[in-house]
Structure formats: structure tokens, C-alpha cells
Amino acid sequence: MIDFSSFMTEVLQLLILLLAAPAFTGWVKTVKCRMQGRTYAGIFQPYRDIAKLFSKEVILAENASWIFRFTPYIVFGVTVLIGGIIPLVSIDLPLADTADVIALVMLFAIIRFFTALAGMDIGTAFGGMGSSREMTISSLAEPAMLMALFTASLGANSTSLTHMVQVMAHGQFILRPSLAFALLSYIMVHLTETGRIPVDNPATHLELTMIHEAMILEYSGRHLALIEWAGMMKLFIYSALGIAIFCPWGIAATDDPSGMLLGGVFLTCKLAAGGVILVLIETGLAKVRLFRLTEYLGSAFLFATLGMLSFFILE
Amino acid sequence: MAPFDIAVIALILMFAPVILAPCCAGSRSLAIHLSFTMTAAASIAAVIAGILAVQHGVNTTAIVDMGLPDLPFHLRLDPLAGFFLCVIGLLAFFVSIYSIGYVKGFSANRSIVRFVIFYSLFIVGMFLVVLADDAFFFLVAWELMAASSYFLVMYEDEKAENRRAAYLYLVIAHVGAIAILLSFGVMAGLANGFESFQGYTFASMRATTYPLGWATAAFFLSFFGFAAKAGVIPLHVWLPEAHPVAPSNVSALMSGVMLKASIYGIIRITFDFLKVYPWWWGGIVLSLGLVSAVLGVLYALMQHDLKRLLAYHSVENIGIILIGLGLAMLFTSFHLPVLAALALIAALYHTLNHAMFKGLLFMGAGAVLHATHERNMEEMGGLIHKMPWTAVFFLIGCVSIAALPPFNGFVSEWLTFQAFLLSPALHRPILSLLIPLGAALLALTGALAAACFVKAFGVTFLGHWRGHASIQAVKEVDWHMRIGMLLAAITCFSLGIFPTVVINWMDILAEKLVGGKIATTAGKFGWMWLTPYAHERASYSSFNVFIGILSVVLVTYLLLHAKRTAIRRVPAWDCGFARTTSRMQYNATSFSMPIRRIFGPLFHIREESEAIQPVRHPAYPEKLRYRLRVRDRFWTWLYEPIGNVAFFVARLVGNLQQGRIQVYLIYSFVTIIVLLVFLG
Amino acid sequence: MTPSYAAQINSVMAALILLTAFGLLIQRRILGLLHLFAWQGFFLSVSTAIVGYVTGVHHLFISSFLTLTLKVILLPYILYVLMRKLNIKREIESLVNIPATMLIGIALVIFSYHLTSPITHLSTLVTRSTLAVALATVMLGLLMMVTRSHAVTQIIGFLAMENGLFFAATSATYGMPMVVELGVALDLLIAAFIFGIFFFHISTTFDSLDVAQMAKLKEED
Asked: Is residue C219 part of a domain?
């Protein structure tokens, strides 16, 4: 049923994900440093960081259980699986039908669940704090995410990603305010889920300000390498998912190499632009207080609902 | 052998311990092993009967000449009854094996015979409820189920709080039963024009068309009655009181299958008898389901008693089932049978799933209670090192209820979402706007449920032991309990990996009840792909998700362990302060603090903390007393006013009781005169 | 520009007007409120101009220009000068429960859609689908006046209501007669001056512009 060329497309896509995700993080950090007037070690620094972590020794607390040791692998595995489902350069993916967007959101929930459990495993105060905050914030972000994805799916009348991309990329071009609202809401949820400012500061070293970092505070060596790499892939995946849903023009419809090469070029340009927008948002805003996040996520839900309402009212 | 005969065998086997257990009252061990083995065998027979009944679409009836003269008992095994028989039997099987180990741990001065008798009667009652084919027999079976569960809840009756909880349960169950009785009265009367008693059979109720006003009365009375027994908000207050105090195997059965008997009643009356109804019935059911789901999970997050937390989660899951039923009713009233079938299958699948994972979770909580004699999560922690098997099974239960792929909870929630997102097909603009907001609330519920189970598993099993007693005495439970939990876990996993097979099997139910089939589209691409409505619309492959994750994990593990460097174990990092204690980690109350702050207005919260004297410096208190009380607002809004009115009326009527003989003689005298006037 | 393309751009403008109406509801900073109000006026004038271009009702161009001068430039400038004179430029207001206000706002939008759907079905105009948005803007402006406690923001709520009414006129009947529009514009300008006088008065009497302070005027017994 699966022919060789689509299998190769899938493998190629996974390779792109694994190899390009640290470069995307490096690009974001470079642009941020330039914008803040600092110098930086270059786009390829995240690769060196991961390589260094792989070569380091793993140190575990005495009461770490098998959940703590198992979580990095599960997080990495689920992230790679999700990366294999989202169309990056071509729509013709054999694994693309494994999950629609709703199942995709729940796959991310697996990562969050196990990371939160690992945070509680060692029994320090910081891990529990990180888990508690992360689960609260993600619960508030879920309605907004669902509403944004639902609004985006109304145009194509489908929640299957392949179909949505196809309708958007190869269909008629219509100005849809519902999609604009959904995009705004998606960006706000993207910042929440990947732990960027204004929700969580990814570069902080003060434990009381951490949300995501606090859960993985105890990891070291190859476990930390896997988790860091999965985190970079998560940023890449969320950005690529947003690009696939909201501006997928340029993606290849079949699996011929020239189409995919062109799709890859388009993807690189769009991701570069996306990275710049991300940095502009992060530099322009400040981190919001934890209990003000209800208003932030409430506005994300509001925008997504407005998108849905304007679809039915105006279109 | 026909499925009906197998069901009868199941009934007889299940009733047998009632007679046999008192005979071997001398030897506790013999009583336990014999009775629970028989109940396990009976449950297996019920499961087989149920599977065959649904698969072949059988429709067998039988009449038993018990009961009142001219009103014999009717029995019927049709696909819907078969499905619920299968659900009840499956969980009863697992719990019976589990009970062999659990009941052995009861203290020696409690009567095992009493427990076994009521246990058998309870499950017999549930079997008879789904097999009953007339109103009279249904209510007899219902009462049998309610009464035996009352005695089971009150098993440890030396504590006053247990008696109070059981009493509350009994009161609400009987208020519900009265409503159900009235509803059957309306339907039976209309089935016959109020002329004879023969309208009481379900067959005649099925054949009647009801005028809208009476149909509404019948529906809302029966919905009220079944909702009281199912634990729908605002009639849920008995659930978090009764389930924790019952023995854990009874809690598993009550939460897993007794609540489903109410769902069976709702489905039977709405889809089978009152087949035609306006759309706003479905709207009300949907709204109540959403409210139950959200409030149930929020109340669950505030609990620190493990079994109370699980009980509130049952409220949430019943809400999710009602959401599916409400959507099915909405789609039916707009004549969209395929969408109604999708929503109904989602609700029924969730019924099966909930029985499995809630049973598993209660069994795990029972194992923890058995080993540590504690129900309070604040006194537990680090149990994963002492009870590794229980931890794994409890984790599978947590992952299933949090609706994470590839386990079973995800499949039914995904189907419910798909039903929600197909609502634009209703072509009623107001509904198209409001129903997706319901989908957002369901997403919120799912995420909060995941948070709650991170808390439950993390505080109970991970971290350090927080209790005052020593952890050394805690040991893993015996193999009976482990096998019971293992079987439930395997079922959870299988239901998640093979959804197309299950939906194929269940499809006849959708066809009979709402007139639509989804199995043809759902399984169109083979057993691996679940495509409920159309392939372009949405698809999900559970098996691929499982294999994908497994293969990446294995490949990564093998690549990284080629070097085989040993892992060094050190004490946990404590920021340089040498004396971190187990009190410094997060516990249940602190984990849910952000949610308590955000959703605070929904509860009745009283929180106070004061420093204990002597205080050396006001900025550095050394000892604090912290008190937190979170209460259900429904007590003050609904139950206390009703209680006050009831007491007020009772006091007024109590004035009749004067205590003096002359007054009573005057009552008799007046009654005689009145009768003579009216009869003369 | 084809009518369907114009209808799409008009829908986008309507969505943006709704967005600014919600933004006014939840924005805390008073300077930010002024900017949002100016943007709402801008989207309104663009929408009026497009409708005027497509339908050929030429007096709509004059209304659009009038909206631009009055609501985008003049009124915000007057309010800004007032705020500077009264030293409240950077003030931040405390709001009642933002998520609840947002949910009530969404309910109002759904309600106004339900209310206007019969008219939308019967109407033959290009702009028929935006009537619901216009009615929602009016109601959101009223909600803003209810939930706010600062005098300047209450005035902005009143002006937002007027924006909604103007948008409703354009959607339902392609604009009001020219005389009516000139009259309304003049009334708005005079209202702005009168508000200015009242602000000074309130400020000197109570030393703050918090309208909750006006409860002190109640006679205590």
C-alpha cells in the first residue's frame, strides 16, 4: 500500500525535522541577540550544545524512579511521531492520516503529562511547582487551541491536515477574517505551549520564574540532550503547523523531487520570517505575571471564538 | 447455545453465592474463594451472552410467572441490553478476581458472608435491570440494586460518617426511583389509554406514540430519576460521600457499572420508547452534561482524598457520556441519522471505556488503601518504589482517563469531538454558534482531567513518603489483586488499539436506536484506520501511533545505550541547604493551588493560615497552622434550603401529634363522621 | 473592484471593528483606549468609503471623510488634550473580572446575530451580513460603559456606541440622509466640549475622575 517514493518522502521529512530544528532555534536566538545588541555564537550553536550534552555523564537522584528515566525517550518519540504527521515540504505523506489536528493536540498532551510526572518524581519543591504551573496553564490554553483549529477547519470542512492544506493551497483565494482571528489566537497559544515570552522565559535561570524549565531541572547528560532536542523540535513543529494551516502556499502536492525542493525553499523562507516575528513579539513584550495569564489565554480564546462567529456571521 | 440461555446461566451462577456462602461460613478462606470464583464465572457468562447478543442482533423475550397475579415478569435480551450486560460483566469479572485478594484483608471481626451476599445481589440486580422488559420488573430490579449497594456502602458501619453517607445515598436514590416510577406510570397509562394495567410492558410502551406534552413529562421525570442515580449535577452530592466510604471493590463496581445502569435507562426510554422529540430536549441534556463535566473535574482537582477525587471524576465522565447522548438527540431531532449514530457510538464507547479505566483506578486506590491503610494523598508519596506493579497499573488508568493516545479514553473523546465539530450540518445558525463553545468546554475538561491525574499519580506514587508512619511496612499487594488490575489494564489498551473492531461490533446498536450506521465509513480503510465520517474529514490510526512511538523509543534507546556508561546516583540537589525534608515537596493541595485561585468563585473556599506562637521574628515564622476547606456550593444553594423546607413542613405537621389520647380519639371520631356523611 | 471582492473587504473591516470593540472592553490603559477608538473610526471610514464606491451612493464618500476627520483625528485629539490638562495620561484602571466580561461580550454577539438574522435573510444589500456586527458593537459599547469606573472611559464607551449606530446605518440602508449625518457630527463635537467642562468640574470637586466617587453625592441618613 505504501510505495517506495512516499516512504522516502516520510524519511526525508523526519530527517529535515531532526536536523533543521536546532538550526531554527539557533536562528531565533541569533536574531534576538542582534536585536538586543549582543553578539552570538552563530546559528549552529544548538548543535554543539546537544552534542556536548550527549557526551556528558548522567547523574540521577537516589529516589528517581523508572518514570524519570523513561520520560526523555517518550518525549522524544512522541515529538518525532508528530513531526512525521505534519506536512513540511509535501502533502503526500503516508503517516499524515495517522492523526488529525485534534489528535495532534492530544499527542502534545502526552509529552506534557509525562514531563509533569517527571517533575514530581524527585520530590523537590521546584519540580512540583513547574508541574503544577504547567498543567494549569496548558488546561487554560486547550480551549483556545481547539477553537482556533476548529475555526481554521471550517473553511475546508475537515480536520485532517492534508485536506486543510490542500484546500487552502490549491483552492480559490478568499479573504477570510475568521482565519485572521484564528491565526492571532494560534500565535498566542503557540507562545504558551512552547514556553516563550510573554508566558515563560526560556532563558531564565531563576527557579521561581520558571514553568517549563522547572520540570526538567534535574535532568543531565543524554536525557537532557533528548529533552532539549525535543524542545527545539516542538518549537519547529508548532511554527511549521501554523505555516501549514494558515499560509501553505508553495507546498508540493506530489512527491516529485523538484516540487519538494521548491517546497523546502518556501518553508525555509517562511520559517525565517516566522522566527523574526517571534523575536519581535518576545522583545516587545514582557513576561506576564502568572495569574494574569488567565486574561492572556482568555483573550486567545476570545479571538478564536470571534473567528468562529465571524465565519458564520460574515461568510 | 442461545445468548439468552447463557444470560440465564449467568444469573443463576451469580445468585448462587447467596445460598452457598452461609453454608461455608465456618472457613473464611473457602467462603471467599468459592463465592468470588462463582461470581467471576457468572460475569464471564454474562460477557459472552452480551457479545453474542450484540453481534447477532438477537431479540429474545421470556416471561417468568413471578410477581403479582396477572402481571408476570418479562425478560428481554436485545442488542442494547447485551451491550450493557457485556460492560457490567466485564468489570464484574475483573473486580471479582481482585476481590479475592482484597476481601482477605478485611479485619477478622467483620462478617464475610454478609458482604458476599450483598455483593452477589448487587450484581444480580444490575443484570436484571438491563434484562427487564416491563416497568414492574425494572423497578424491582432497580430497588434490589439500590438496596444491596446501600448495605455494601454501609459495610463499615461503626463510623458515623459512613452511616451518614449511606443514608444520603439512599435518600437521593429513592427520590430518583419515585421519579422513574411516575415516568413509567405516565408511559404505561398512555400506552393503554389509562384503561388496564397491560400497558406496563416495555413492548406496549415501545409501540405507542406519545403526545408532546405527556412525552415531555415522561422524559423529564425519567431523566431526573436516572440523573439522580447517575450523579449529574446538581444531584451528585451523594457520589463523593458514598464512594469513598465503601470498600474499594464495591466503589469500583458502583462507579464503573452502577452509574451505567442509569445511562441504560436514559437510552432505553429516549431512543427506544419516546422516539420522536423536539430539539431542545437534546439541548438540555447537552448543557447538563457540559456543566457536570466541567464542575465535576474542578471539584475533583480540589480533593486530597484519593477515592473522593475518583468519585468526582465519575461525575465528570457521566457528563461526557451525556454530552454524547445530547448530541445524538439533537441530530436525531433534525433527522441526521448518520451524525446521530456517530454521537451515540461515542457515548456508548465512553460508557465501556469509563467502566474499564474507572474500575482500574478504584482497584488501584483500593490496593494503596490495603497496603498503607491511608486514603489521604497528603500522607502518601514514593509508593512507586514499594508497590511497582500497582503503580504501573494505576499509571495506565491515569493515562486512559486523561484521554491520551493510544489508550481507550482518547478514542471516545475524539469521537465526541468529531460529533461536536460536525454541528454546522444542523443548519440552525444559533446552534452552530453555541455548540462549538461546548466543544471548547470539553477541551477544557480534558486538559483539567489530565492535570488532576498528574496530581493523583504524582502525589501518591512519586516523590518522597510524606506520612507520619513509616513506609517500611508497605508492601506490594497479592497476586489476585494484581491480576484483576492487569486484566483491566490490558482491556484499556486493547480498546484503544482496536477501535474499528469495537465500532463494527457496536454498530447494530446505532442502527436500531437512531437508524444510522457508521461502521461502513469508520472501518473503510481496514482495521488500522478510524475514519468515522469520511476519510477527508478526519482520520486516526491508534496502532500507528503506538508502533511509531515504540519504534522511535527503541531505536533511540539502543543507539544511546551502545556505550553502556553507568548512571551515577546521588542525593537530590538541594540548593546547598542540607536539610530538605519530605515536607518541602509539593503535595495535593499545593499542586492545585493555581486552579483554586483561578476558579475560586465556583466553590465555597475558606482558607486561613496563622503562625503558631512563639514567633521570634514576624518575617520568619517557624511553625504555621494552615486550614483549608473547600465545599460544594450546591449544598448551600439547593440542599440546605430543601432540607429547611422539609423540616419546616414536618414541624407544622408534627403539631398533629399532641400525645394525649383524647386528641387521637377526636381524630378517629371526625374521620368516622366524615366517612358516614360521604358514603351515606 | 468586483462587488464580491468589495464584500470581502467590507467583511474584513467589520471583523476589525468587532475586534476593536472587544479590545476597548478589555484594555486597561487609557491612552491605549484612545488609540483603539481611533482605529475603530478608521476602519469605519474605510468601510463606508468602499460601500460608497461599489454602490455609487456618492454622499457616503462625504460621510467617510467626515468620520475620518471627526472620529479618527479630532475627537481623540480633544480627549488627549483633556487628559494631559487633567494629568491622567498614564492612568491605568482596575477592571472587574476580565474573563467574565469577555464571555458576556461573546454572548451579546451571538444574541445580536440571532436578532438580526431575519433581516439578513430578507435584505438584498451588499452589506447585509455586517448588520449583526453593528448591533454587537452598540451593545459592546454599552457593556463597556457598565463595567468601567473612570469618566473618560465611559465617554469613550458612549462614542463607541455611536460608531456602532453609524455602522448599522451603513449596513442597513446605505447611510443616513446627509442632513442627519451632519447634525449628528455637530452634536458629537459639542458633546466633546461639554464633556471637557464636566471633567474639569468633577475633577475639582472629587479630586479624581473615578465615577464611583459620585456615590458620595447620595444623601446618607
From this structure: no
